[in-house]
């Protein structure tokens, strides 16, 4: 059976930036026809490497706080992942080699964060945890209930056609298009592919936590590393987080060596992905906080 190759990854990297981009435009960027791009996307879905498209709310922009917690435990992986799914607001779970896990979740306030950390510790028997917090926009954009209805409608089908989306949300196609475009421009959310990384077989997916006071280097890093999938920044501690891919452990070493050589880095450590889960229902949790009066 064919497996994800560099062309497939290039397609997904383009769609990670704009998951609603027409396939013919994706093809123009990487030198394929629109039909060839569509065919490859469909093949990745059939092989289980791609789980479709969903909405990714930006933790830096939306006023609901969020964080990533590094968890170390000796319990079995399946038990840990099933337990962590119970944490309300959990968005993303990654299992790594050596009994290390990363959970990305949203919370209501500091008391709620503390309660969730205690719950995580109790659920999985964590003997060590570390918190990475996202920076927040000083003046978050104003959002309407319609915006949150759009976001919720897109969680299971990020490429839903505008005509269908307008019927689901209950407003005109023009309104849906304008509100969606506005949210993307303001960085509130975007549509992206949900990649099942362990299913990509010969591709090794790994993350790097790069602690540095110069987090503005993130933009430069995105340009200089071809095997970089995505980046993010944490404010506490100041850290650049990157998800990379490689064909061998030697390429992992080469990537780290180049980073240390080129950038001002305090510490750096990497994690190799074993299993990854994206929990789409986090969208409902965030929207309920933002619209406590309801969306109906």
Low-confidence stretches: none
- Major sheet: 8 strands, antiparallel
The total strand number stands at 10
CATH topology of the domain at 199-275: Alpha-Beta Plaits
Helix content: 40-55%
Indicate the overall shape: globular
Assign the CATH architecture of the domain at 199-275: 2-Layer Sandwich
Which structural class do the helices and strands define? alpha+beta
Number of DSSP helical runs? 11
Q: So, the CATH homologous superfamily of the domain at 199-275? A: Lrp/AsnC effector binding domain/regulation of amino acid metabolism (RAM) domain
Q: If strands are numbered along the chain, what order do they take across the biggest sheet?
A: 5-2-4-3-10-7-9-8
Helix and strand run: HHHEEHEEHEHHHEEHEEHEH
Task: Round the Cα radius of gyration to an integer and report it.
Answer: 19 Å
Strand fraction equals: 25-35%
CATH class of the domain at 199-275: Alpha Beta
Mean pLDDT: 93
First-to-last CA distance? 45 Å
In short:
The chain is of the alpha+beta class. It is 40% helix and 27% strand. The mean pLDDT is 93.
Write up this protein.
This protein has helices at residues 6-17, 23-30, 34-47, 77-84, 110-124, 145-154, 162-169, 173-185, 217-224, 249-262, 282-290, and strands spanning 50-57, 66-72, 90-96, 100-106, 128-133, 189-195, 204-211, 228-235, 238-246, 267-278. The chain contains 11 helices and 10 strands. Among the domains are: 6-47, Winged helix-like DNA-binding domain superfamily/Winged helix DNA-binding domain (Arc Repressor Mutant, subunit A, Orthogonal Bundle), CATH 1.10.10; 199-275, Lrp/AsnC effector binding domain/regulation of amino acid metabolism (RAM) domain (Alpha-Beta Plaits), CATH 3.30.70.920. The chain is 40% helix and 27% strand. Strands 5-2-4-3-10-7-9-8 form an 8-stranded antiparallel sheet. It has a two-stranded antiparallel ribbon with strand order 1-6. The N and C termini lie far apart (45 Å). Helix 1 crosses helix 2 (23-30), helix 2 crosses helix 3 (34-47) and helix 6 (145-154) runs antiparallel to helix 11 (282-290). It is of the alpha+beta class. A hairpin with a 2-residue loop joins strand 8 (228-235) and strand 9 (238-246).
């Amino acid at each position: 059976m064919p497996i994800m190759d560099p062309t497939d990854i290039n397609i997904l990297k383009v769609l990670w930036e704009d998951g609603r981009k027409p396939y013919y435009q994706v093809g123009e960027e990487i030198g394929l026809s629109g039909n060839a791009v569509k065919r490859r996307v469909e093949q990745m879905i059939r092989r289980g490497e791609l789980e479709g498209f969903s909405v990714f709310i930006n933790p830096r922009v939306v006023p609901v706080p969020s964080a990533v917690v590094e968890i170390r435990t000796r319990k079995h992986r399946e038990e840990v992942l099933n337990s962590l799914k119970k944490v309300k607001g959990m968005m993303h779970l990654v299992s790594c080699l050596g009994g290390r896990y990363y959970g990305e979740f949203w919370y209501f306030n500091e008391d709620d964060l503390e309660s969730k950390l205690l719950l995580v510790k109790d659920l999985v028997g964590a003997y060590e945890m570390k918190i990475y917090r996202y920076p927040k926009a000083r003046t978050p954009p104003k959002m309407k209930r319609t915006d949150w209805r759009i976001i919720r409608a897109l969680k299971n089908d990020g490429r839903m056609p505008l005509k269908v989306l307008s019927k689901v949300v209950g407003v005109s196609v023009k309104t849906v298009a304008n509100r969606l475009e506005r949210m993307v421009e303001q960085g509130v959310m975007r549509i992206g592919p949900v990649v099942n990384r362990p299913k990509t077989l010969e591709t090794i997916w790994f993350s790097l936590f790069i602690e540095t006071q110069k987090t503005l280097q993130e933009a430069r890093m995105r340009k200089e590393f071809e095997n970089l999938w995505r980046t993010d920044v944490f404010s506490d501690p100041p850290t650049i987080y990157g998800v990379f891919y490689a064909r061998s452990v030697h390429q992992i070493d080469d990537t780290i060596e180049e980073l240390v050589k080129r950038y001002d880095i305090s510490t750096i450590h990497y994690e190799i992905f074993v299993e990854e889960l994206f929990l789409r229902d986090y969208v409902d949790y965030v929207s309920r906080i933002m619209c406590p009066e309801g969306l109906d």
